[in-house]
Amino acid sequence: MKIEGKHALVTGGAAGIGLEITRALIAAGASVLVVGRDRAKLDAIRNATARVETFAADLADARERERLLAHISAASPPLDILVNNAGTMQYFALTGPDAQDRIDRELALDLHAPIHLAIALLPRFLERPEAAIVNVTTGLVYAPFGNTPGYSAAKGGLHAFTRSLRWQTRNTRLQVVDLLPPAVATSLTARYDGPKISPDKVAAALLDGLRTGREEVRPGHTKALYAMSRIAPGFIFRALNKQADKVPLD
Ligand SMILES: NC(=O)c1ccc[n+]([C@@H]2O[C@H](COP(=O)([O-])OP(=O)(O)OC[C@H]3O[C@@H](n4cnc5c(N)ncnc54)[C@H](OP(=O)(O)O)[C@@H]3O)[C@@H](O)[C@H]2O)c1
Predict the structure, then answer these.
(1) Number of domains the chain is built from
(2) Residue 1 lies in a domain
(3) Which stretches make up the Ketoreductase domain (predicted)?
(4) Predicted confidence (pLDDT) per residue in 152-184, tens digit
(5) Which of 39, 41, 83, 201 lies at a C-alpha separation of 20 to 30 Å from 224?
(6) Ligand 1 centre distance from Cα of residue 110 (Å)
(7) Does residue 249 lie within any of the structural domains?
């Protein structure tokens, strides 16, 4: 795909990995609609960057997602790229009194929101000369953390949904990309003290994947994690969970 001149929607595009994806798309000549809740962060990216528009919405709420979709329908230019990046990762015990509520909230943002946006935008994307849907999952789909049950369920589900979407659109011009970052130095991993890469490296890998037509983009340690999960799945699952067990539960 040629990035220059494309119009992208990046959810959670004003912080962390999403911010670097926004910057990389802009540097490559695209325009970006950035969605998030924090208006101060949205204003900061809009004021600092040409070709950026913003829209404040809580994507965990289906009505807010409908409001965003109405805004997209009314606006121009038409979208060519959707980056489903907004997400949260919570460490909690399944025996806690609020475990079900926490799972529901996490599934709403990390699973239902990206699926909702992808399905709603799909008909329009299929009419574009070139288009891409990028779902940001995680290298942990190969070895999920036991102490982040909502995240593990959501990302595993989104990884599988992404494969379904790719299969059903295989004879179209739509590129369906799964971006599977390793641990990245953002606020999401503040309490995890394993090795982390910088978010700009993840964004650079995604841009490269979009340009070269990759289906799964595995930056940094995710490549090794993928290989290990095939060779010694039990070993890598236990090793990663020993590291993750050091993070206190909420
Ligand atoms: N960091 C990692 O190690 C890592 C590894 C693998 C995958 N990932 C994935 O990468 C994605 C980005 O994570 P990150 O590390 O960049 O996290 P982050 O720094 O915490 O950023 C999360 C982004 O999501 C937005 N967001 C959170 N809740 C939202 C909501 N309810 N509605 C709309 N936007 C919301 C935030 O914006 P507002 O606060 O303004 O809403 C923020 O822009 C996530 O899907 C995450 O699972 C991260």
Answers:
(1) 1
(2) no
(3) 6-234
(4) 999 999 999 999 999 999 999 999 999 999 999
(5) 83
(6) 9
(7) no
Residue 175 makes CB contacts below 8 A (sequence gap 6+) with 1, 130, 131, 132, 133, 210, 213
pLDDT score for 76: 80
CATH assignment at residue 116: 3.40.50.720
Q: Does the pLDDT value for residue 75 go beyond 90?
A: no
Whether 2 is in a domain gets the answer no
What is the predicted pLDDT for the residue at 233?
97
Which of 160-192 are b and which e, b meaning 16 or more Cβ less than 10 Å from the residue's Cβ? ebbeebbeebeeeebbbbbbbbbbbbbebbeeb
Per the structure, the complete domain to which residue 192 belongs is given by 7-244
Whether ligand 1 lies within 6 angstroms of the CB of 30 is answered as no
Q: How remote is the CA of residue 171 from the centroid of ligand 1, in Å?
A: 32
Q: Whose CA is nearest to atom 36 of ligand 1?
A: 12
